[in-house]
Description:
- The chain is mainly beta.
- The protein has one helix at 2-33; strands at residues 36-37, 43-44, 60-64, 76-77, 85-91, 94-101, 105-110, 119-130, 134-143, 146-153, 157-164, 167-176, 187-194, 197-202, 205-211, 219-226, 230-243.
- The chain starts with a helix and ends with a strand.
Amino acid sequence: MAEKKSFWTNIPGILKGIGAVIVALTGLYIALNTTQKSDTGQVLTPTTTTEALSLTEWPIIAEETFTTEPLNWIISNYPTERFPRSDLRLVDGKYRWDIEYSKKDYHSIFCPIGSVINFNVAVDMKLIEHTSDMSFGIIFSSTGNDYYLFDISASRYFGLTRKHDGIEQMIIDWTPITVAFEPKEWNRMSVVVDDQLIRLYLNSELLSERRDTGFTGGKVGIGLKMYERGETVVDFDNFQFRRKP
């Protein structure tokens, strides 16, 4: 009888313990399946982890093969004092720049797409001829007179320049190209910017990378840089512009 009395005496405690477990499980279920609020009152919703998209899965927002007259890309010959000859035209499905320049200068054409921050831009380039030191490459994050320039030279060097408030600064000094590269053959250049990390590629090989906390995005395009009086002919092809979702 004493043992039976002890059992019935402990029943309330057992039931209370089971009830506490049920309450705890119910609270956990609600916490995992409903929205919450932070201390600031901001609504926090449950999230699921997904694998990051690869660069080739970033949506294409502009693509040009130059097989027909390109939409909103300049096709004309407009000589100026700076450029006695500036002939941009299509030749056998290529975007050819035939330029004569009177002094050190820079010439660029922008893709007809607005400003972007995280992107992957790539283009094929081939140097046909040149009579003086020059470089060609990708201009990006252009806003007003400010820009970044990834270019490679006919003398087989690459660099990254930033121009801000009228002042040019080499973020990556001229560096010898150690990957397979022949200026008068087709080469594919690419710039990838993701969360202010700038990566420079040549023929699918990573040349260098830099994080620039001052990077705020802008337009992208292609360009030539001339260092003295001379003439240059360069072909561009297969321009592709992707934006991170």
